[in-house]
Amino acid sequence: MEKKTVLVERKGRIAYVILNRPEKLNALNSQLLQELDSELSDIEKDDEISVVILKGNGRAFSVGYDVGKYSYPTVTQDRDNLEEFTRRWLRVWEYPKPIIAQVQGYALAGGTQLLASCDIVVTSEDAVFGFPSLPLGGGFVGLYWGWHVGYQRAKLLDLTAGSRISGKEATEYGFAACCFSADEIEEKTLEIARRIAKTPLDILKLKKKAHNRIMELQGFRTGVMYGPEQDAIIHTADGIKLMRSKIDELGLKAAIQWFNEQEV
């Protein structure tokens, strides 16, 4: 029997949705994403659940997409694949019930797109947020950051391959709503969820929609939907081809080491 990559636990009106590929630091593969869709759909229909807490099992929230399993057949197919990811994150953003992301350990690359699509991010102080260690694309992940941390910080982080900030810094920047010590985060996140869940579900749904409408007026949906086109174009650049060839030649870890040792 295939191991489930997304688990669900219920505590009163709270549902925990747990990414469960700890051996891969909860990297996003097709099975995990399909199970995430399915579990969220089931919870959406359950009127006994008012708030979702999304977290990762093990040492990471998620380190992003399975890079080694991603290919670029044609620009159009690449764009279509990327749009599928984007529409999934928009479904999270549009989800009728509040989603609180609880972040411990690593939250990198595509994992931060998922975070940026949630309603509230609660993090441990020592969590690690950041971008891919190699420049393998562009205009896809970073677009989500600008809405939360401002455009200068988003550019600074996105243009620096392998950039990292702590959970404490992510909270100061505005990517997370609050941070706690690693020992407290489980209890504190549940407290926040329970306080939110006291509000009747129909009111929560309307309140969330009202906030999302303002983000739509400011261009959030249009902005992130531009990402697939931009990223597909960048994937054809000579610099990206060089990075992919180094991964094929050396393996991912050695390619990252090669990149970090470059002198400029």
Distinctive features:
four-stranded mixed sheet; 2-enoyl-CoA Hydratase, Chain A, domain 1; 264 residues; six-stranded mixed sheet; single chain; alpha/beta
- Going by CATH, what is the homologous superfamily? 2-enoyl-CoA Hydratase, Chain A, domain 1
What is the CATH class designation? Alpha Beta
Q: What's the rounded overall pLDDT mean?
A: 95
First-to-last CA distance: 51 Å
Summarize the structure.
The chain is an alpha/beta fold and 264 residues long.
What does this structure look like?
Helices cover 50% and strands 16% of the residues. The protein has eleven helices and ten strands. Strand 1 and strand 2 (14-19) form a beta hairpin. Helix 3 crosses helix 4 and helix 4 (142-149) packs antiparallel against helix 5. It is globular and about 55 Å long. The model has no long low-confidence stretch (mean pLDDT 95).
Question: Secondary-structure map with pairings?
Answer:
Blueprint: E1 6-11, E2 14-19, H1 30-44, E3 51-56, E4 60-62, H2 75-94, E5 99-103, E6 106-108, H3 110-117, E7 120-124, E8 128-130, H4 142-149, H5 151-158, E9 164-166, H6 167-173, E10 178-180, H7 185-197, H8 201-217, H9 220-234, H10 238-250, H11 252-260
Parallel strand pairs: 2-3, 3-5, 4-6, 5-7, 6-8, 7-10
Antiparallel strand pairs: 1-2, 8-9
Helix pairs in contact: 2-3, 2-9, 3-4, 4-5, 10-11
